[in-house]
Specification:
The structure is a single chain. The chain is of the alpha+beta class. It has one domain (13-257): Transposase IS200-like (Alpha-Beta Plaits, 2-Layer Sandwich), CATH 3.30.70.1290. The protein is 37% helix and 20% strand. The strands form 2 sheets. Strands 1, 2, 3, 4, 5, 6, 7 and 10 form an 8-stranded mixed β-sheet that branches. The longest helix has 21 residues, at 72-92. It is globular, with a radius of gyration of 17 Å.
Length: 266
Amino acid sequence: MPRAHRHYIPGCVWHITHRCHKQEFLLRFEKDRKRWRHWLFEAKKRYGLCVLNYIVTSNHVHLLVVDTAKDVIARSLQLVAGRTAQEFNLRKKRKGAFWEDRYHATAVETDDHLAKCIVYIDLNMVRAGVVRHPSEYRSSGFNEIQNPPRRYAVIDRKALLNFLAIGNQERLRQEHRHWVDTELQADVKKRRSLWTESIAIGSEGFVEKIQQQLGLRARGRSVLSEKEGLALKEASAPYSTLFESEKNTVRSDNSYFININDGNSE
């Protein structure tokens, strides 16, 4: 499998989605989801990965991160995905791929679009019908933003404050809960593939800038007007999951190979 390949854009926020092989529920046990989070914390320590939000479901993960240095995201995903898979396969005496070969990345503008993306991630398991409120689901960043742990924190709350232009931690907590509660009053089960199918989401200037920076990788893509903002998108092939609310797509040009050692002997 080739090494992870992505385009480095300093300071860019990426919403990353990575799915289990063949949509299997390989992360259905909480202990495996905890191990994924453990290795995410290790990636933060080892490589300086800047995490803004995350959620681990039974068959895929969402991760909101910042491009702080070249290869930091790719190396971090390689560590997290590889070690999670190794531990699972060893415990289950299992052989074969744990993850899909590719992860999908969407560039998100750091304004209201970032807040909307945070909420989209928070409400993942609400859309799936697993919980009624994100506070009821442990394997996510919602509770960490609301009640940050004294030790082993994954989310960079200082970075969140800066990107969202919020003055202090208490206001961040209040604004975050308000965003979530407001969205819960709407049709949260409605599929919003914009956040997982686009190359970039934001204002016209932001989308055009990302299109220019990606160069050939973004050539021929369409800029579409969506409810949440402008999106740089392309024609897609179906890539469904077992959660009705998360029927997404994977395409070659804005999805990236990741080299992981998951115990695959093939």
